[in-house]
Amino acid sequence: xxxxxxxxxxxxxxxxxxxxxxxxxxxxxxxxxxxxxxxxxxxxxxxxxxxxxxxxxxxxxxxxxxxxxxxxxxxxxxxxxxxxxxxxxxxxxxxxxxxxxxxxxxxxxxxxxxxxxxxxxxxxxxxxxxxxxxxxxxxxxxxxxxxxxxxxxxxxxxxxxxxxxx
Amino acid sequence: xxxxxxxxxxxxxxxxxxxxxxxxxxxxxxxxxxxxxxxxxxxxxxxxxxxxxxxxxxxxxxxxxxxxxxxxxxxxxxxxxxxxxxxxxxxxxxxxxxxxxxxxxxxxxxxxxxxxxxxxxxxxxxxxxxxxxxxxxxxxxxxxxxxxxxxxxxxxxxxxxxxxxxxxxxxxxxxxxx
Lengths: 166, 178
Fold this sequence. Notes:
Largest sheet of chain B: 4 strands, parallel
Shape of chain B: elongated
Number of helices of chain B: 8
Shape of chain A: elongated
Largest interface: A-B, 20 and 27 residues
Strand content of chain A: 25-35%
Order of helices and strands of chain A: HEEHEEEEHE
Radius of gyration of chain B: 22 Å
Helix content of chain A: 10-25%
Number of strands of chain A: 7
Oligomer: heterodimer
Strand order of the largest sheet of chain B: 1-2-3-4
Radius of gyration of chain A: 20 Å
Structural class of chain B: alpha/beta
Largest sheet of chain A: 5 strands, mixed
Strand content of chain B: 5-15%
Distance between the termini of chain B: 53 Å
Strand order of the largest sheet of chain A: 1-2-5-4-3
């Protein structure tokens, strides 16, 4: 069995951000914070600059359709002592707006574009929020649990040029 | 009047055998179709897993080059054959058609793998073009997920046989002039 992941100390965090709800470590043994979207940028700035989380392994979107919310899950990692921290943000489905952290971690730029493309979460302050994987003129957000595939016009007509050749 | 050239025109059995070994009689159409089929240079067009099998068929173990596909060309301007090896998404389809339009005639298409025949494993996916024959004229359908390199060789051989049955130049001219 591999050694368990080191858990970061959250005392400095708690002192600085009393509003943050600290969830019990989840099944993978990762300390997880549930936080409102409003303090996300301040918290991540503090974690990057003062606590030394210098690497972001994963940024992903989650569809909490049972509670009518969309959410983001950020994993932060500290290479100094190999500590991992997870952040969870939930926003209502009708107005899913989360502040962007692309100016803090450059990798977040495309991860947030992907979340916007496939889930429809809008990142305020993102320098270039547009679709990443789907065609630019696509309508809808396919990875939402209530997505229904509409018939889509083919992007190009049938090409019969070959039939004139010998 | 003496029948001139009698002895000179008759060919004896030995000369006949010699002629059979050294003289080939054919038509221009047959020769043209044979030349087209014997030197098919594919385009390096691989989007997914079938591309790996397409690469394997060019390796020495299977060796596609001995059937005329000596090189794979990266530019469509110099390619005769497009092997659509791999899933085509709706975003990729216009680019694929652009490449096909840039290929000079005569050109051919082998649809390699289940994804390009009818969508394959991604049949119900929102982003996948289920069947490349909706946008390209396909000559040979090669099923498989992925088809083995020997299967791609067989597809190429079937394409060569199909090309040798192409319509004659005269028929084509008459058809286009109409």
